[in-house]
Write a structure and sequence with these properties.
This protein is α/β, with parallel strands linked by helices. It folds into three domains: 174 residues, 3-Layer(bba) Sandwich (FAD/NAD(P)-binding domain), CATH 3.50.50.60; 114 residues, 3-Layer(bba) Sandwich (FAD/NAD(P)-binding domain); 90 residues, FAD/NAD-linked reductase, C-terminal dimerisation domain (Enolase-like, domain 1, 2-Layer Sandwich), CATH 3.30.390.30. Helices cover 26% and strands 28% of the residues. A hairpin with a 5-residue loop joins strand 15 and strand 16. It comes from Neiella marina. Belongs to the FAD-dependent oxidoreductase family.
Length: 421
C-alpha cells in the first residue's frame, strides 16, 4: 500500500507531539517530512529557563534528537535555509528558503509564535534581544560572562524567568514593568506582592508602572542605557524584551488560508483547506489563541487522531493553569481569579508563612484560583473548575485543600462524598 505524504512545517513541541501521537496511532500511514528553522532536533522550549539558570544543559532538554527522526523514517530538514517560505496549495507542495521542495497529501502547520518586539527607539541596537529560543539563551549566557547590567522588559512569566536566570549567572538585573502588579494576568495584588518580595530577596530590582521611552546607544551602536519618561536613565548592557508573543501565521496567510489573530481552525484542528491542519501557538480556535503547553499538546492529540483516520476527537478549549519555572517559588493560577459582583471570594493569607490562597466561586462553582507558597491542591481546584462541580457541601473548608475537604465530607456530610471527592 502506498503511503500518503505528510509534511510538517515547524519542528517545535506542538508539531512533534502531533507526529509522536500519529506514529503511535498509525505508524505506517505516512511518509513524514519535517521542516524546522532551528538547526536542532525537537527540544523542550519551556525548559530554556533552567538552561539559563545553569540547572539544565541543552542536551538535557532535547526531546527528540536527530537519531530519533532516522529511527522513525522521518526526513528532517533543519536550519535557517530550510525555513519554508511558500505553500503552493494548488500543487500541494512547500518550498524552503534554499529551494528544497516537498509534496504533501496532508500538511500540518506548526509555526508557533514569535516574540513581540515593542518598537521603542533603539530597539534594533546590539544587545537588545528576546527570550524565545536556544540562540537567545546562548546570547544571554555570553553576555553574563563579559557584561554587568541586564534590564528585562516585562513582569510576566518569561520576564521573571529571564531575570532569575541572569541573576543566577551573576548579572545585576532590573525588571521594568508597565503595571503595578507582577504577573498581572495571572495573579492578584496579594500574591504578586509575595512574589515580588521573594525576587527582591534574591537581589533582583523592579521598576513598576514604568514609562519606558527609548534605548540609548553607545558610540559603537550597542545599548548602554534605558531612558524613561521622566528623563532618568538606567545603565544597560543587555536589554531583554519579554512582553509576550504573537501567533506566527504569516506563511499561512500568504498561502490564502483564513487567518485572524492566528490560523483559524475548527474543532478537528483543520483549516478551511481540508488537506491542511494547524496546531500550537500559531492557531486560533473559537476566538482563542494559546501560549501554554497543555492546550497545545491536547491539540496535537486531536489532530493526530484525525490524521490517522480515526476521526472522532474534538478539541475543547479549557482554562490553562499557570506555573512559574523558578526553583524555590511555588505559585499556581487558573481561570478567573478576579470575579465580578456575582462572585464570592474565599481568601487565606499568612504573611509569616508566605502562603496565600484565593478561590473564586460563582453559583457555588469554582471559576478561578490563585495559590502562592502552598500549591499542592492546584490540580484539585483545576479539576473542580473544569468539571463545574457544585462545592456548596465543602465551601466552608474549600481553602484547606482536597484531603481536608474529603475528610470533612466523610465525617460531616457523607452523602456529598462522591460528588466532590
Amino acid at each position: 500500500m502506498t503511503k500518503e505524504k505528510l509534511v510538517v512545517i515547524g519542528n517545535g513541541m506542538a508539531g512533534m507531539k502531533a507526529v509522536e501521537e500519529l506514529l503511535s496511532a498509525s505508524p505506517e500511514h505516512y511518509e513524514i517530512t519535517v521542516f524546522g528553522a532551528e538547526p536542532y532536533g525537537n527540544y523542550n522550549r519551556i525548559m530554556l529557563s533552567p538552561v539559563l539558570c545553569g540547572e539544565k544543559t541543552i542536551d538535557e532538554i532535547m526531546i527528540n534528537d536527530r537519531q530519533w527522526y532516522q529511527d522513525n523514517g522521518i526526513v528532517l530538514h533543519a536550519g535557517p535555509d530550510k525555513q519554508i517560505t511558500e505553500i503552493d496549495r494548488r500543487r500541494r507542495k512547500v518550498i524552503s528558503r534554499d529551494g528544497t521542495e516537498a509534496r504533501y497529501d496532508k500538511l500540518l502547520i506548526a509555526t508557533g509564535s514569535k516574540p513581540f518586539i515593542i518598537p521603542l527607539p533603539g530597539h534594533q541596537l546590539d544587545g537588545v534581544i528576546a527570550f524565545r529560543d536556544i540562540f537567545d539563551v546562548n546570547t544571554m549566557l555570553s553576555y553574563a560572562v563579559t557584561r554587568r547590567h541586564a534590564v528585562v522588559l516585562g513582569g510576566g512569566l518569561l520576564g521573571l524567568e529571564a531575570a532569575n536566570g541572569l541573576k543566577q549567572q551573576g548579572m545585576e538585573v532590573t525588571v521594568v514593568h508597565n503595571c503595578a502588579t507582577l504577573l498581572n494576568r495571572q495573579l492578584d495584588a496579594n500574591a504578586a506582592e509575595l512574589l515580588r518580595a521573594e525576587f527582591e530577596a534574591r537581589g533582583i530590582h523592579f521598576m513598576m508602572e514604568a514609562d519606558t521611552k527609548e534605548l540609548v546607544a553607545d558610540n559603537s551602536g550597542h545599548v548602554r542605557a534605558v531612558r524613561f519618561g521622566d528623563g532618568t536613565e538606567l545603565p544597560c548592557d543587555l536589554f531583554v524584551m519579554a512582553v509576550g508573543v504573537k501567533p506566527n501565521f504569516d506563511l499561512a496567510k500568504s498561502a490564502g488560508l483564513h487567518c485572524e489573530r492566528g490560523i483559524v481552525v475548527n474543532d478537528t484542528l483543520q483549516t478551511f483547506d481540508p488537506s491542511i491542519y494547524a496546531v500550537g501557538e500559531c492557531v486560533q480556535h473559537r476566538g482563542s489563541t494559546f501560549g501554554m503547553v497543555a492546550p497545545v499538546f491536547e491539540q496535537a492529540k486531536v489532530c493526530a487522531n484525525h490524521l490517522s483516520g480515526h476521526g472522532v476527537a474534538e478539541y475543547k478549549t479549557l482554562p490553562t493553569a499557570t506555573k512559574l519555572k523558578v526553583t524555590g517559588i511555588n505559585l499556581f493560577s487558573v481561570g478567573d481569579f478576579v470575579g465580578d459582583s456575582d462572585c464570592d471570594i474565599l481568601e487565606f493569607h499568612d504573611p509569616d508563612l508566605k502562603v496565600y490562597k484565593r478561590v473564586v466561586l460563582r453559583a457555588e462553582r469554582v471559576i478561578g484560583a490563585v495559590l502562592y507558597g502552598d500549591t499542592i491542591d492546584g490540580s484539585w481546584y483545576q479539576t473542580l473548575l473544569e468539571s463545574e462541580q457544585d462545592v456548596s457541601a465543602i465551601r466552608s473548608v474549600l481553602l484547606f485543600g482536597q484531603r481536608y475537604a474529603e475528610k470533612f465530607v466523610e465525617d460531616v456530610a457523607p452523602s456529598a462524598l462522591q460528588e466532590v471527592a
